[in-house]
């Protein structure tokens, strides 16, 4: 089961990073979104990020041009059908993801592997809505994708070994490291990271610290590259809240209760960097 053509669904923050690293590793990438503006923006970001890599001598101009030439785009989801692997990186809502997989199924090759970049939703449940739960994986990249070393690979209950190994070979070819996680809410990274971020929001909510002191404490006191509130803005507060809700619902433990202040920010539309306002003001 050798993979060469990869479809990426969703041209947002994660989708453009995934297309970027796949193309640089030599894969033929087809990027899909429902909006042409999203595709145009993604291609522009990919080019700028690759230019930065050229200027820092991480890649050559020839490698950039070849990689950009390997990325094509489409507004028609079903054009991705003939891919060897499809990585869904659409919005973190289960109904959206399920609808994408259901639309794709009639157009797939028998051997196509389906995967989702979900940061918390059950892989087993997503897989059960397709015709191929044995060829379905959780393929979870970290943000920013071109920089972060880890990819979490999550097997659903029915995922077979050949599928896991084919995906692990892709991760290896990207020069990244795979960590294998079992399919329980939010897997490994977000099971640990999100309660920490949520606790930082509680610390703010209860007045123990302010935005600056909380972030400085964790940067200088725990050597984190970003403070938890800065990181929450970077990930997106809506995504953070969605993951806390998956933990709270899936594990039924009050220790995962989303902080009311996090909920309030999301209700205000203050989603972090992407809306120019979150715990910090980026305007
Ligand atoms: N594409 C390509 N390269 C990029 C990039 C991008 N999008 N963003 C940053 N870089 C490169 C820079 O060019 C720079 O390269 P050099 O080392 O060659 O100079 C390097 O990354 C460092 O970037 P900067 O100098 O601009 O800034 P920095 O040193 O402050 O690092 C950071 C930025 C890498 C984002 C760092 O702050 C960091 O690691 N933050 C934590 C990120 C993190 O925790 N991510 C995980 C989030 S959780 C997640 O993703 C899971 C989920 O499901 C929610």
Automatic annotation (TrEMBL):
Oxidoreductase in keyword set: yes
Gene3D superfamilies on file: N-(1-d-carboxylethyl)-l-norvaline Dehydrogenase, domain 2, NAD(P)-binding Rossmann-like Domain
GO biological process: fatty acid metabolic process
GO MF term (any one): oxidoreductase activity, acting on the CH-OH group of donors, NAD or NADP as acceptor
Residues the entry annotates as binding NAD(+): 10-15, 33, 92, 97, 119, 143, 274
Top-level division of the source organism's lineage: Bacteria
Residues annotated as domain 3-hydroxyacyl-CoA dehydrogenase C-terminal: 187-282
Origin organism lineage: Bacteria, Pseudomonadati, Pseudomonadota, Alphaproteobacteria, Rhodobacterales
Position of the signal peptide: none
UniProt keyword terms in alphabetical order: NAD, Oxidoreductase
Name of the protein described by the UniProt record: 3-hydroxyacyl-CoA dehydrogenase
TM regions (residue ranges): none
